[in-house]
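Q: Give me the 3D complex with 6-O-phosphoryl inosine monophosphate.
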Amino acid sequence: MSTLVVLGTQWGDEGKGKVVHYLATKSDYIVRYQGGNNAGHTLIYENKPFVLHLIPSGILFPKKICIITNGVVVDPKALKEEVDLLKKKNIPIDGRFFVSELAHVILPYHKYIDGILEDDTEKVKIGTTKKGIGPCYADKVRRVGIRIADYLDKEVFLELLEQNLKEKELMLGKVISIDKVRKEILEDYPVLSKFLKKYVADTSLLLADAMKKKKKILFESAQGTLLDLDYGTYPFVTSSNPTAGGASVGAGIGPSKIEKVLGVVKAYTTRVGEGPFPTELFDEVGSFLREKGQEYGATTGRPRRCGWFDAVLLRHSVRVSGIEHLILTKLDCLEGLEKIKICVAYKYKGKIIKEFPASRILQRDCKPVYEEMPGLDGKVRGVRSFDKLPKNAQKYIRRLEELVGAKIDLISLGRKREETIAVSKNIKWF
Ligand code: IMO
Ligand code: MG
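A: Here is the predicted complex, encoded as structure tokens.
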């Protein structure tokens, strides 16, 4: 096998950063296929936390090739800042970092629109990251977006920019002068376009060549399944498809080329931003999880909402992406809890619901049906093999597998790479 998709199965922040970093050592290529700098992967680099929003963290390893494909929306300014940061740390990237010329660019007006829509009290508040992600994807779908290939052709870019500014003025005009927005974009343009030019490529072609050579390619999602535009808690979602199918469209590879799909799942649930969250806890257990798991957003610093593990939601994620294998993260954060609950179904107006509902009202008002288990009866952190885990921890893991219908291959217990337990023997990642 040579291709592997790694994706989040909840509302993002499942610990994909650590997992991808761990698997990057075994890969030749690491590829981002959707989202933008709304994502945040926190890693430990030279013993210090290090956050990357756009570039795959595999860039920290020498010789790995990192790619941002067409499905991603790219803020050239944010990308340049990240590249500059890597250069400052003496991490060479030239010749091993590529961006698709088909990817759409996020321009300042996207960010301003994101902000205005979020602050509009008459509209549904999504709680976005205000990075301009949604407005940029909206332009893509409306066929007025600007792709990197167009951005790099000054004549084409200026024409498209004027068309867009004219249109955006209707929305932005009351809040910010459109001349100011134009000035901001044009001031940055020479530096940013020169910078981008260095890294653009036909990334679908690059990947096809790599697959022919049987290179090991890791496709990493940002966000998670419940933030997926189609399968998430719409409208409280992001504007792309983190699910496995998104990797095919988003990277320009045929679905038959995806050989394995690996889901990352946290031992409990978290969510940032607005929207339904059936197992959310508003009591001291919620606060306990937030502190123990340091659940604060890597991109916006917002405290994350916390709750029990939701097996209904996970079954849904497992199905829509064809996940057979999972990596369980942050199990150690359940240490110290007397009882642990797992949501096995929902209840709405007296009826039991076993599948994740489509209706936003049901998603909001359904109540979790819990199964209770005793706490983990001992230390989890520091353990290096499944058999040495406390018996209750082993039972919790086996029960989760049973409920969600996928195997847990690996357990991650801390931020460091070595804090992992292989559950299955002879795991074949590729
Ligand atoms: P990683 O990759 C958690 C959430 C936002 C908001 C919704 C839409 O770290 O898992 P957007 O700015 O994307 O239009 O916001 O999606 N969101 C995330 N939540 N982790 C993320 O990324 C997220 N990226 C976006 O909070 O609710
Ligand atoms: Mg995040």
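A quick observation: The chain is about 35% helix and 20% strand.
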